[in-house]
């Protein structure tokens, strides 16, 4: 079987950068067709620049980057410089990217690619607010045909939110888009905070990554060394590695477990805006619309990350 075609929709973002490197390190399993960028952790101009900087660091400037939506469908943009730094890539030495953005809008690229794809072919990895994916699905609902699966990082059920007590950042930034995507009828897997808060980058794990002995390992260790904000909030010995869970799940799903459930997103205003309401006990009898991951083998995950990153320059 050849490598699975994937498109990474992203807002780099420190953990997005690690996820992109992780995916690029397994070319025989994952064929990264493009990165599509969205506003999220930092504004669109920066996520679009950062995506190309990460590709340069991975020695893969051939992967096209399409810029997408500059803000959420309905709400004003909320960003997270307090987590990822002003540049969005705190810990990475920045340079002017060697490549231009690809021509055309990310939403058009998604629509055209998915329309041309064989049935149930492309996996969409969503690492940021779901604005681009929702816009594509609203404009062209027929593209569902070409989607194998949407694997997204977002939401929380068994853990409190990280941007408000009720909400996780990606869903909070664009709850309307999240609701469209989750209820689109495409096969959805959700890697929420319930999962990512189990994979903590402890000093010992960061040291193992730094000691891989290649440029990628040094870069990831440097990013993690500059990513202390969440560990402070959680009072844990290391911050969570959110977006790389998506790639880890694609490479080794047996490290993860969860349940097929109904998920709805709170789009009304108030204290719970952006909350993912997960019917874990199936009390509503609403049909399941997502596989919700709530358990990860953290040691297995870090071993996979380290052995995979070791294959990059
Ligand atoms: C998510 O929010 C962003 O800050 C991270 O990149 C990740 O996608 C975690 O809540
Ligand atoms: Ca992200």
Description:
The protein is an alpha/beta fold and 313 residues long. It has one domain: Ribonucleoside hydrolase-like (Inosine-uridine Nucleoside N-ribohydrolase, Chain A). It contains 13 helices and 12 strands. The protein has helices spanning 14-24, 44-57, 81-84, 106-116, 131-139, 169-173, 175-182, 193-196, 203-210, 215-225, 229-234, 244-251, 298-309, and strands at residues 4-10, 30-37, 65-67, 122-126, 147-153, 188-191, 200-201, 239-240, 256-261, 263-265, 276-278, 290-296. It has an 8-stranded mixed β-sheet with strand order 3-2-1-4-5-6-12-9, sandwiched between helices. The longest helix is centred in the first third of the chain and has 14 residues, at 44-57. The radius of gyration is 18 Å and the shape is globular. Beta-D-ribofuranose binds at residues 13, 15-16, 41, 80, 83, 127-128, 153, 162, 168-170, 242-243.
CATH-assigned homologous superfamily: Ribonucleoside hydrolase-like
Helix content: 25-40%
Radius of gyration: 18 Å
The CATH class:
Alpha Beta
The succession of helices and strands, N to C, reads: EHEHEHHEHEHHEHEHHHEHEEEEH
Strand order of the largest sheet: 3-2-1-4-5-6-12-9
Give the overall shape. Answer: globular
Runs in which pLDDT lies below 50 for 5 or more consecutive residues are: none
**What oligomeric state do these chains adopt?**
single chain
The CATH architecture can be given as Alpha-Beta Complex
Ends distance: 25 Å
Bound molecules: beta-D-ribofuranose, calcium ion
Coarse structural class: alpha/beta
Number of helices: 13
Counting structural domains, the number is: 1
Strand content: 15-25%
